[in-house]
Design brief:
By secondary structure, this protein is mainly α. It has 65 helices and two strands. Strand 1 and strand 2 form a beta hairpin.
């Protein structure tokens, strides 16, 4: 058994200055103290004539026994040999107690005796180990309780009463208090309350001390509760007696009205035991057996009685609320103290818990509606303590309190005063500050189909109460805001404790299960209860939707619920009845019509509906009220009868009481309905009397009469309180009436267990989704109306908490709404009407705080921002226009990892993303960056001279700069690589949207500046997210394409677009080979530039392309990619400034075949031809281009050799074919340059062509390719040169004669080098005739009007050498003498036309005479032969 704990802060009421902590180790010291107390009492007694005279009389006259006892004690105290704790305290207390009990003593004597007892009790002499201490404590209590004295004046009486209070408090605070029995403690409390009651007619001081003492007594008693066991263990003896006593005391609550009259001089203060009569036996008072260590302390029985008594003080609510606020406050404060100190131990004692659940809470509900804010505040304090300690046992009581008290009083529409509203709101805010309050309200009430949505209603109340509607901001608004933010911050703190890993996927019911029977396997384990409450909330929501459908069309409503598996596919009566019973928001008229219908199914539903009620031990009128509250009783008598039959059957089954059968219940119910109509219908003039009612109900109870008292009670109940047969539809928050309270107590016994939440975020996602919209709106409105910085900060804290919760629970829409709301407060989106917006911003604390908050959210929670990026960018653009952004906010983001370009590549690019470069064309010059803007302010370089800025202006500007620095705007873009994919995509889209769609024609400089800035940012995030370029690329490309295609004049925007695109390609090609084609294809946009734009930037573009090629040549692998590159380079061939850089890139690719590939060979050859043909620059570059072309043959040879070594035969054949085609394209390209007007280029081209045709030993070109080569390249070149020589002036083509000689030599050398292979062809004859034909034409050509001597000299020599070679190799021999050898004959036919002597010189041994006639005969067919051979060659080529 535990000892009574001394509570800190509880101090006795003192009148005398004795030291309460004296420890007397010396016996004589204690004896002296007691002796002094005896002397004090005797001294006061001597002052009284009665006592003094008797004391001074002769020896023959005896002294009064009181004086004798005191003197006897005086003699003994110094002679006691034992230690003080071995001496029974009764020995030295009894004389004082006798004085106190005596009715002969006056108030002064009694007062001193009480002081003496008080002093002894506080000396710590007496404790639980002291001999016979329990007897002594009982004696003290009995003596003080029965204190009697003569009242001479009111003041002395008040002193005695104060001393009595002191002694009682000392008894309960002393170490020996545990020895007090239950009855003695009850007596102490009872006596103290009697004094409190009497003090009302006495002095203020006594009143205050009496009340304070009562508080202290209650605190002492209830602080002892945690240390005691339950009633069964608290009592060792007299269990039966205690039980009887407790039962007997139930009717003793009215003692507070008894007063002892002390107005006349002879009256006595006779304080008898009021809580229990003075009966022998009673609670344990006997001395314990010596074998039992210690004694039985007071315990649960007295605590129960005291608490019952305290609750009973609130019983007469109407009287106390209307008459004496002070008494009600006193009673409530006592109860509050009891609950504070009893704490969670109260739940361990069923009777205490029952008192709290029923009587106490019912009274608190009534007192809560008091007009007194003081009473309301005290009631709310009690409920808060009850919530803290006992909420698991008070689920429905708490729901009722919030629904019927807080939610009603906190809104003016229910008629409450401002003071009531404020007190209710303060209480609600206190609850909101309990970290788990809202979570538990949501889990236990909002997610329970039988309970109201308390969390939702409270959250809405806070939001609405924070709205200042057509009025300035008041303390009420701030108070509601505090509550709202307390809830939000609680959610934010729980995120820090870790999110509960449960799937937040929407709940779906896949099959029908009775929704009213859904249970949880374990209400203590979140793994079970979290999914359970989410499922239950889903059901509740669907039922509400079903109710809405039902109210419009009952049939469709039931079909909807069947579709959502809340009702079975085949309706059964029970499920429909439960839908009617447990669904809020149903139209009660429709429900009543349905239940009263005569249809068999409806009758079954009615029966099941009645069976959902619990009428156990309930009065008939109460049961009928509850039943008729759930629907509107139909008007037709038949329907009413069916309804009342179902009700009566259910009622009789559960609460027969004195009813004989269910028919009696039915008749009496009918009678009550009629009485109700009679009494409360204004149209009924003559009201039914009690006698009428009793007479009407004769013989209805199985032929007998019901008891008169029973009927009389029913009659008065109906008269006083109408049964509403037309219940209000959705009438907000109903009042708590007795019948509803009885129903609540019935429900509480069957209610699901209370779910206790810990500090983790179990349901915050769902809760926040409900309250986020109103919360953001409320905080925003308060922020808008606020004028003090502390309110600003409160709102900002709320905004940040909302952002944190939205982000952590992935509620992107909520975060977007928050960002939109906050951006409005930055003032950056407002049209600028002030002259100096920067200074105005610096002076606007609210705007600066909002701005910092917006960007704090963007940096912290950017992952979950979606459409909000648009508003954030609007703010950034405004700051940019005001020149308040750091100068390199965009380029820093893109340049942080970029390697600086090599200075060896020439001058740096003027137009790139970096803001540090020179201003772009068309961009207005302006100071950018923080210091630039600041210098503007200092210099104020306007047209008109202005005064220097004031200190206030400088300070405002400094504040602006500091604000922007705090925003860390650049981090949004530099850290964009960490953004989630969806957020990054939305940011990019927002940038594109903010830039606007480019329009053809002139746009304003400001619009262009914005578009340029947005493009910079877009390119920055693109470069920062190279690993996610696929995500961004399509949007970025389309935006740049729009700019390129809509721009017709050079400007900063198109410049940024083009070079940004090039830069993206430069940076990303090394990392994204799979995107190389896509990136390079994008460069085709450059080819689509308007001619004026392209011309303006051609050189810089070429430099960038050159850098790209040099840095990434190894990463470009596809033909498409190279086609784009070479197209860009080819264009530059004819551009004066760009051609050098373009050729430099081509040189890099083709020199030594460094980066030539089968994929780019033909493209590079073609580009080289463009440079060779270009007359821009020196001819030397054309020659170098030709060298690149001719040198590329080595690559073809190398590839052919590699193919033989590494590939299969089939692959080799394919490769050979490809190489042949590439070679043919090469020589065709050079052939075109052979016609160049410039002599050195033309001649070099022929030599290069010759090189290409003679250095192909490794290539093994197919014979068909050579035929094509002769026909499409050599013969065509010869013919074209011949045409030029004959048809153009010498001014255009200088020294064509030399070129023709080179061409003839090429023909001869190529033919001779290939003679062996060509001679094997069937078409060799035609090829040979074509050569002879060209030689013959070149012999006859006239250059500048006369034949060329050099040609006439060199052609026969070349022909001779050719013929000798053919003879040597056996190609040209006479094979038949009969004229069948056409090659032989045709050859000499042509040779004789060119140089007749050659025949004899080459074949001196032949008989040429025989051949002459044939020559003459066939001479006419020369041309035809040649033509036929040429046509044959062309056919071969075509095939």
């Amino acid at each position: 058994m535990g000892r009574l704990k001394m509570q800190p802060g509880i101090k006795a009421i003192e009148e005398e200055p004795e030291d309460l902590d004296v420890t007397c180790s010396n016996k004589s010291t204690l004896a002296c103290m007691i002796n002094s107390e005896i002397a004090a009492v005797l001294a006061v007694m001597r002052r009284n004539v009665r006592w003094g005279g008797r004391y001074m009389s002769g020896d023959d006259q005896l002294e009064h026994s009181l004086i004798q006892n005191l003197k006897a004690l005086r003699k003994q105290i110094f002679s006691w040999q034992h230690q003080w704790h071995n001496i029974s305290p009764a020995a030295y207390l009894q004389p004082f107690l006798d004085v106190i009990r005596s009715d002969e003593t006056g108030a002064p004597i009694t007062s001193v005796a009480l002081s003496s007892v008080y002093k002894i009790l506080t000396l710590d002499v007496i404790d639980q180990t002291t001999a016979n201490v329990e007897d002594a404590m009982h004696l003290v209590v009995d003596a003080v309780t029965n204190c009697r004295f003569e009242v001479t004046d009111p003041a002395s009486e008040e002193v005695v009463l104060m001393k009595i209070l002191q002694v009682f408090l000392a008894c309960l605070k002393s170490k020996a208090s545990v020895m007090l029995g239950n009855q003695h403690v009850c007596t102490i409390v009872n006596t103290c309350f009697r004094i409190v009651h009497q003090a009302g007619t006495k002095g203020e001081l006594l009143q205050r001390i009496a009340r304070h003492t009562m508080h202290e007594l209650v605190r002492c008693v209830f602080s002892h509760l945690p240390d005691v066991d339950n009633t069964e263990h608290a009592i060792v003896n007299g269990v039966t007696t205690v039980g009887q006593e407790v039962c007997a005391l139930d009717n003793e609550y009215a003692f507070g009205n008894k007063q002892t009259d002390t107005s006349n001089g002879n009256s006595e203060n006779d304080s008898q035991a009021i809580l229990a009569p003075n009966v022998s036996g009673g609670l344990v008072t006997s001395v314990m057996d010596e074998n039992i260590i210690g004694a039985v302390p007071y315990g649960v029985p007295c605590i129960v009685e005291i608490f019952h008594f305290l609750c009973s003080l609130l019983s007469d609510v109407d009287h106390m609320m209307s008459f004496d606020e002070d008494v009600a406050l006193f009673a409530l404060s006592l109860i509050n103290s009891a609950i504070e100190l009893g704490g969670s131990s109260l739940r361990n004692h069923p009777r205490l818990l029952t008192l709290i659940q029923d009587e106490l809470f019912r009274n608190l509900m009534q007192f809560g509606l008091s007009m007194s804010p003081l009473i309301l505040s005290m009631v709310c304090s009690i409920v808060l303590n009850l919530y803290h300690h006992l909420r698991t046992e008070l689920k429905l009581q708490l729901e009722a309190f919030f629904s019927c008290v807080i939610l009603r009083l906190a809104q003016s529409r229910y008629g409450s005063s401002y003071q009531q509203q404020e007190a209710a709101m303060e209480a609600l805010v206190d609850f909101c500050r309990q970290k788990t309050f809202m979570v538990e309200m949501y889990a236990n009430l909002d997610c329970d189909i039988t309970c109201s949505n308390v969390f939702e209603e409270l959250a809405n109340l806070l939001s609405k109460s924070a709205f200042p509607v057509n009025c300035p901001l008041s303390s009420m608004h701030i108070l509601a805001l505090d509550g709202l933010i307390a809830v939000i911050q609680g959610m934010a703190e729980r995120i820090g404790n870790g999110l509960f890993n449960l799937d937040y996927a929407p709940v779906n019911l896949e099959e029908y299960t009775p929704f009213w029977m859904v249970k949880c396997d374990n209400y203590n384990d979140p793994v079970y209860w979290v999914p359970f409450v989410r499922r239950r909330k889903y059901i509740k929501r669907r039922l509400m939707i079903g109710a809405d459908h039902f109210n419009r069309d009952p049939k469709k409503g039931l079909e909807f619920l069947q579709g959502t598996h809340l009702l079975p596919d085949k309706l059964d009566p029970q499920s429909v009845a439960c839908f009617f019973r447990y669904t809020a928001g149903l139209d009660k008229n429709l429900v009543g019509d349905f239940l009263g219908n005569h249809d068999e199914f409806c009758v079954q539903v009615l029966h099941e509906f009645a069976w959902t009620f619990d009428f156990q031990d309930m009065h008939l009128d109460t049961a009928l009220r509850l039943f008729l509250e759930t629907f509107r009783l139909p008007g037709e008598s038949q329907k009413i009868q069916r309804v009342l039959e179902a009700f009566s059957e259910r009622y009789y089954e559960q609460s027969p009481l004195i009813l004989a059968n269910k028919d009696a219940a039915l008749l009496l119910s009918y009678s009550l309905i009629m009485l109700n109509t009679d009494q409360h219908n204004v149209q009924v003039k003559k009201k039914m009397t009690e006698e009428d009612f009793i007479r009407n109900n004769r013989h209805i109870n199985g032929g007998n009469d019901l008891p008169r008292d029973f009927l009389s009670e029913l009659y008065h109940a109906i008269c006083k309180n109408e049964i509403r047969t037309t219940p209000e539809q959705g009438a907000g928050f109903a009042e708590m009436n007795p019948s509803r309270w009885i129903d609540l107590m019935h429900k509480s016994k069957k209610s699901a267990p209370y779910i206790v939440s810990d500090s983790r975020a179990y349901l915050d996602h769902d809760m926040f989704a409900i309250m986020s919209g109103p919360t953001i709106a409320a905080i925003s409105v308060v922020f808008d109306h606020a004028e003090h910085e502390d309110v600003y900060q409160t709102c900002i804290d709320g905004f940040l908490a909302v952002a944190k919760i939205s982000a952590c629970h992935h509620l992107e829409d909520v975060l977007d709404d928050l960002v939109v709301s906050l951006c409005k407060f930055t003032t950056l989106l407002n049209p600028s009407s002030v002259e100096e917006p920067v200074l105005a911003f610096g002076d606007d604390t609210k705007a600066r705080m909002a701005t910092v908050t917006v960007f704090t959210i963007a940096n912290r929670y950017g992952d979950y921002i979606r459409t909000g990026w648009r508003n954030i960018l609007d703010c950034i653009l405004r700051l940019h226009k005001l020149g308040l952004l750091p100068a390199r906010v965009a380029s820093d983001a893109a340049d942080e990892s970029e390697v600086s370009p090599d200075p060896a590549h020439g001058k740096p690019l003027t137009n790139s993303l970096s803001s540090a470069h020179m201003p772009s064309l068309g961009t207005p010059r302006r100071s950018s960056g923080l210091m630039g803007r600041f210098s503007q302010l200092l210099s104020l370089d306007t047209e008109e001279p202005r005064s220097q800025p004031t200190e206030q202006q400088l300070a405002a500007h400094q504040r602006t700069l500091q604000t922007i620095q705090k925003c860390h705007i650049d981090s949004i873009f530099t850290e964009s690589k960490f953004l989630q994919a969806e957020s990054l995509l939305q940011l990019a889209r927002a940038l594109i949207w903010a830039a606007g769609r480019p329009q053809k024609g002139n746009s304003s400089p400001e619009d262009e500046d914005t578009a340029v800035f947005c493009l910079e940012l877009l390119i920055a995030i693109t470069l920062n997210n190279r690993d996610r370029i696929v995500l961004l690329w399509q949007g970025v490309y389309e935006h740049i394409a729009n700019i390129v295609q809509s721009t017709v004049m050079p400007c900063a925007l198109v410049e940024k677009a083009v070079f940004g695109l090039l830069r993206i390609c430069q940076r990303l090609l090394p990392y994204k080979e799979n995107l190389a084609d896509e990136l390079l294809r994008s460069l085709q946009l450059v080819l689509k530039l308007d001619a004026r734009v392209a011309d303006a930037y051609c050189e810089q573009i070429t430099q960038e392309v050159t850098r790209l090629v040099k840095a990434n040549a190894t990463h470009i692998r596809s033909q498409m990619g190279w086609r784009t590159i070479t197209s860009l380079l080819s264009i530059t061939a004819r551009h004066p400034e760009a051609s050098e850089a373009g050729f430099d890139a081509l040189l890099f690719i083709m020199s030594d075949g460094a980066h030539l590939l089968p994929a780019n060979y033909v493209l590079c050859v073609d580009a080289s031809r463009q440079f060779a043909e270009s007359r821009v620059g020196q001819a030397e570059r054309s020659l170098r281009a030709l060298d690149l072309m001719s040198g590329s043959v080595e690559c073809l040879s190398r590839w052919a050799l590699e193919a033989k070594e590494t590939m299969t035969e089939e692959e080799t054949a394919k490769m050979s074919q490809d190489i042949g085609e590439m070679w043919l394209r090469l020589v065709q390209g050079i052939r075109k340059v052979c016609l160049d007007q410039r002599e050195d280029v033309r001649n070099h081209a022929i030599l290069s062509l010759q090189k290409c045709m003679t250095a192909v030993d490794e290539i093994n070109l197919p014979h068909g390719v050579w035929l094509q080569c002769f026909d499409m390249v050599i013969f065509t070149m010869l013919d074209d040169l011949l045409e030029i020589a004959q048809g153009h002036s010498q001014k255009d083509y200088r020294n064509m004669e030399g070129t023709l000689i080179f061409a003839m030599k090429l023909l001869s050398k190529v033919f001779l080098s290939l003679l062996h292979e060509l001679s094997q062809l069937t078409t060799f004859c035609k090829l040979w005739l074509g050569i002879l034909s060209r030689m013959e034409k070149y012999m006859k050509v006239k250059v500048r009007g006369k034949k060329s001597e050099k040609l006439q000299e060199i052609v026969p020599d070349l022909l001779k050498n050719t013929l000798i070679a053919m003879k040597t190799k056996g190609v040209l021999v006479q094979r038949s003498a009969l004229g069948g050898d056409s090659l032989w004959e045709l050859t000499w036919l042509h040779v004789n036309n060119i140089a007749p002597p050659l025949q004899a010189e080459v074949f001196p041994d032949q008989d040429w005479e025989q051949a002459q006639p044939k020559q003459g005969e066939t001479g006419g067919g020369e041309i035809g032969s040649v033509e036929s051979s040429e046509s044959l060659a062309s056919e071969v080529s075509a095939s």
